[in-house]
Amino acid sequence: MVSAQSQFKLKVSGEVSQPLELSLSDLVKMPRKEAKLKDKEGNVHVYTGVSVLDILAKAGVPSGKELHGENLSKYLLVQCTDGYQVLFSLAELDPSIADKNVIVADTIDGNPLLKEKGPLRIIAEGEKKPARSSYQVEALIVGHIKK
């Protein structure tokens, strides 16, 4: 039996040098990172997944010393299967500029995400409102603001 989740691919596209389609098993093989997020009841949950930066690096997105000039106007658009979208600037994701922990999570408290919330979720640790910690992530699209 082949489930929809086993066929799932996270698409990474836009202004990247290497467009990607990552399966859940591809993501599990990448370096793992944790992020904490409070739920509506105030309970803290530990999510585990892959740093967004590691995924973007694999796609050839500029970071570190390359993040200057025109590259500072680049952004990451996260698209979810239900049509929800959230935006991050590449600068806010880069550790040379900001201390932001953003991961693409596939587990919560050591268990897979619930089917209706997964298979992947963006977790933006430390934000006062979890509005950008979105469910059912299906695509990461890099773009930039043009004059």
UniProtKB/TrEMBL annotation:
Domain of life: Bacteria
Protein name: Molybdopterin-binding protein
Organism: Chryseobacterium rhizosphaerae
Entry-linked SUPFAM superfamilies: Oxidoreductase molybdopterin-binding domain
InterPro entries named in the record: OxRdtase_Mopterin-bd_dom, OxRdtase_Mopterin-bd_sf
Domain Oxidoreductase molybdopterin-binding: 5-125
